[in-house]
């Protein structure tokens, strides 16, 4: 049976993550309060952020920036703006 959570990002009761996807206390908070759907949205946004800003996960400062943006996106309703990115026209 799938577990459900009240997703802080989507503001509704939806399917939760299967396991903790991020380490530490923040990972526990994400597991408890973020849905699979919201996590997938963040993963997409994170990939764009890494690619457009040419970030490296080896770099401590870059990891901190990604984590800060993740918290703002998932918990504070902030839509991470990727400088230099414009969505494809329909």
Automatic annotation (TrEMBL):
Domain of life where this protein originates: Bacteria
Keywords tagged on the record: Iron
Xref: InterPro entries: Fe_traffick_prot_YggX (IPR007457), Fe_traffick_prot_YggX_sf (IPR036766)
Stored Pfam families: Iron_traffic
GO BP term, example: cellular response to oxidative stress
GO cellular component: cytosol
GO molecular function, one term: iron ion binding
Protein role: Could be a mediator in iron transactions between iron acquisition and iron-requiring processes, such as synthesis and/or repair of Fe-S clusters in biosynthetic enzymes. Necessary to maintain high levels of aconitase under oxidative stress.
Family membership noted in the UniProt record: Belongs to the Fe(2+)-trafficking protein family.
Protein name: Probable Fe(2+)-trafficking protein
UniProt organism field: Candidatus Enterovibrio escicola
């Amino acid at each position: 049976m799938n577990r459900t959570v009240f997703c802080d990002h989507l503001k509704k009761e939806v399917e939760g993550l299967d396991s903790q996807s991020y380490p530490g206390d923040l990972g526990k908070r994400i597991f408890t309060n973020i849905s699979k759907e919201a996590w997938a949205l963040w993963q997409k946004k994170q990939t764009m952020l890494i690619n457009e800003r040419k970030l490296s996960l080896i770099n401590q400062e870059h990891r901190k920036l990604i984590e800060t943006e993740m918290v703002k996106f998932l918990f504070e309703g902030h839509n991470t703006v990727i400088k230099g990115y414009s969505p494809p026209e329909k």
